[in-house]
Amino acid sequence: MDIVNEILEKEQKKAEKYKPITVEKHLELELDVGTLLAFDTNDLDTKLLKSDSQRDAYLQSLARDNTQLLLNKIWELPTERIDEAIVVKLPQPTTVLPRSKPVPKPKPLTKWQEFAKAKGITKQKKDKLKWDEQLQKWVPLYGFRKAAAEKEKDWLIEVPQNVDPMTDMYEKKASEKSEKVAKNELQRLKNIARSRKVNIPRVGLPVTSDKANATQLSTAAVVAKASTASLGKFQDKLPKEKEARGKGVHELIPGKVRKRNAPIPTPQVERENNLNLIDRILNKRPKIDMDKAVSKHIHKEQVQRSEEKKSMKPIKGKGKAKGGNVTNFSAKKPKAGKGQRNPNKKNPGRKRR
Amino acid sequence: MGVIQRIKKPTTRKGKKVLLSREPKPIEGPKQSIFLQARNPSERARKVLKDLYDLKKPDAAYLSRKNDFVPFEDATLIEKLCYKKDASLFGVSSHSKKRPHNIILGRTFNYGILDMIELGAENFKAMSDFHNMKVLAGIKPCLLFNGPVWELNQDLKRLKSLFTDFFYREKVESVRLQGLEHVISFSATDDGTIYLRSYRIHLKKSGQRTPRIELEEIGPSVDFKLRRTKLASADLFKEACRIPKELKPIAKKNQSTDAFGTKLGRIHMGKQDINRLQTRKMKGLKKSTEEKKQMLLKKKMAKKEAKKGNMLNA
Predict the structure, then answer these.
(1) A64 Cβ under 8 Å from any chain B Cβ
(2) Cβ-defined contact of B213 to A66 (cutoff 8 Å)
(3) Looking at CA atoms only, how far is residue B286 from chain A in angstroms?
(4) Does A91 touch chain B (CB under 8 A)?
(5) Measuring CA to CA, how many Å separate B264 from each of B149, B254, B257, B267?
(6) Which strand (E) or helix (H) includes residue B96?
(7) Which A positions 154-213 lie with beta carbon below 8 A of chain B?
(8) Class of residue A313 by CB neighbours under 10 A (exposed 0-12, middle 13-18, buried 19+)
(9) For the whole model, what pTM was predicted?
(10) A74·B195 Cβ contact <8 A
(11) With contacts defined as CB-CB under 8 Å, which chain A residues touch B173?
């Protein structure tokens, strides 16, 4: 019994040494442990707050009590040990605080992403290095030192059989790459335009000012005409309507493509065509252009007559036939003054033939 | 409209990373804040701002140039600076005869002003006036709001939300027990005075697992007087508080766990006709031809009886 009492007394003394961790409050605090927040709805002692000397002490004791309650709650949570530190897992916060930026909107998928989703294609992760048999070493597929590795491989590019032997293969490679880059850029811009619901025309450049110019309008008309079920074959054309020119429009104009898709003639057919052409040229009979022939004849006669007249002039006499008005072809037509008054002109008056 | 949707692609990788960091994300990091001075700041107001900046380090920027503007009339300068620094909290100090030692605290949403609350600083004791060891920078503080008036007054309710937003830094999953060192207490009275006090926590032995708390004031110690407020409209605030779908906890229906921890589920069946239930086929229970004949006979008799009964009734 004594031993038990002794132990109990010891424990009591020990407990008395330490200050209590319990706090008495009229109303319970509203604790939001997730944000380490404690809200005390008990009334404040206004008398103590008003006096300058006692205010700070009162506030400190109040804060101490509330912090004690909050930390008691925190110490009850399950703990873990991470790297020499005892860590407690906090619950979800209950205070709703406003965000600084709005909720992100889901990004619209590009044309390829939609296709891949529909087909079920997933991205395959590519390794950076690839073993190259020719060079017998690991070569990066993209990024740092890719260009150097490619240059090493391309110290020589063979010209294949079906290509003109004078082509510059390096130039061709470079131009192909730049074409690919341009195509990629165009597709990227088209994707952006589609996601922003901006309409871009199929052929030609989009309209920048509020009015389209003549070529854009004619292109638009051709595209619209070709959008029928018969691809524009039976659409009427305006009397003076000109066909549009430009890249990508020729396929849309019915009839224009026919020429391109004409079958390549066989050697025999081609030989026959060429021979027929030569015959046509060489067997040509001279065509007589009636108007030209008549005017030439008339001119010849006029020249002859003027020559005769010149040769007849030194014989004096009444060569002038009475009553016969010989039209004097060599007489010059009286020139007008071209709108300018010439005061020195000898015979004023209307010009007469 | 993200980085991918830009017409002009960012040319450098660093630039692209900066642009990506400024995009809205489902879970946001700690809110950045800027502190600047408006018309004619007094020394006290400037010091209060400096102390708030010290409390908010490293997520804060202190702009030292004096700007001649009045936030309550024209807040575009604040919005521009917040856009530049990618900050959503701000503090502005000014001084005039009508509003001495004025501090305006506020927050932005989507680079536009959400809330702005004006406080007057009376009785200020700076952190430097308390000669003791302070708390580490970047520690998440415990926040205390004392007084029932925080919930009753609408302006103070918003101010409580604003103070929480200002000081809570960011949402954390777990906290180190030894790292709970800082407490900030806000006590509000009915006449619009708010007492801000900041303490350092000392954990003392208590004979039990949970320690005894002792506080030591480290400052700053400010008595604020609530002046004007410019609060966001209810729907703008609601829009700002929207939680993205990814973060909303998915409520799993028809599942429960019993005392032993086994997961139980509920399946909802349609109406069943017990007479036509498909059970296991047991050859022994199959009806022989004799039995079938007998059943048919029985049915016929029953029909006849029914007919007779009908005729009689009719």
Answers:
(1) yes
(2) no
(3) 51
(4) no
(5) 46, 8, 6, 10
(6) none
(7) 189, 192, 195-196
(8) exposed
(9) 0.67
(10) no
(11) 89-90
Count of positions (residues) in chain B: 314
Q: Is the ipTM of this complex over 0.95?
A: no
Parallel, antiparallel or unpaired: strands A37-40 and A30-32: antiparallel
Which of A19, A76, A101 is opposite residue B28, by nearest beta carbon?
Answer: A101
Angle at A25 (CA atoms; ends A21, A29), nearest 5 degrees: 90
Give the whole-angstrom CA distance, residue B218 versus residue A37: 19
Q: Cβ A68–B239 below 8 Å, yes or no?
A: no
Q: What is the pLDDT of residues B112-161, one digit of tens each?
A: 999 999 999 988 888 888 888 888 888 899 999 999 999 998 889 999 99
Percent of all residues in chain B with a pLDDT value above 90, rounded to a whole number: 41
pLDDT, position A301? 94
- Contact (CB, 8 A) for B193 and B126: no
Inter-chain contact B144–A49, Cβ cutoff 8 Å? no
CB B155 within 8 A of CB B105: no
For residue A28, give Cα distances in angstroms to A42, A75, B166, B191. Answer: 8, 18, 25, 24
Q: Hey, how many other C-beta atoms are within 10 angstroms of the C-beta on A103?
A: 17
Please count the other Cβ atoms lying within 10 Å of the Cβ belonging to residue B236: 17
Q: Which residues of chain A make contact with B171, given a CB cutoff of 8 A?
A: 34-35, 93
Q: Encoding tokens for residue B22?
A: 């400024």
Chain A: residue nearest B113 by CA? A100
Report residue A114 as tokens: 């939609």
Any idea which residue has 């391109």 for tokens? A260
d(CA A78, CA A214): 77
Other beta carbons within 10 Å of A33: 20
What is the DSSP code string of B212-270? Answer: EEEEEE-S-EEEEEEEEEEPPPHHHHHHHTPPPTTTSPP--TTEEE-TT--EEE-----
Spatial separation of the C-alpha atoms in residues B24 and B22, rounded to whole Å = 7
Instruction: Considering only the beta carbons, identify the residue of A90, A104, A192 that sits closest to B26.
Output: A104
Query: Rounded to an integer, what distance in angstroms lies between the CA atom of residue B41 and that of residue B104?
Result: 12
Whether A219 and chain B come into contact, CB under 8 Å, resolves to no
CB contact under 8 A, A89 and B214: no
Cβ–Cβ contact A68 with B under 8 A? yes
pLDDT tens by residue, chain A, 353 residues? 788 888 888 887 776 777 877 888 888 889 999 999 999 988 888 888 888 888 889 999 999 999 999 999 998 888 888 888 888 999 988 888 999 999 988 888 999 999 998 888 899 998 999 998 888 999 999 989 999 998 988 898 889 988 888 889 999 999 999 999 999 999 999 999 999 888 888 777 788 888 888 888 888 888 888 888 888 888 888 888 887 887 778 777 777 665 555 677 788 988 999 999 999 999 888 778 889 999 999 999 999 999 999 988 765 555 454 545 556 666 667 666 677 777 776 666 666 66
Cα B182 to Cα B167: distance, rounded to the nearest angstrom? 11
- B233 interfacial to chain A (CB closer than 8 Å): no
Contacts with A, B 20-39, CB within 8 Å: 23-26, 28, 31
Residues A102, B109: C-beta atoms closer than 8 Å: yes
| CB-CB under 8 Å, B175 with A100 | no
CB contact under 8 A, B109 and A55: no
CB burial readout B119-135, b (16+ within 10 A) else e: bbbeebbbbeebeeebb
The span from the first CA to the last CA of chain A, in angstroms, equals: 165
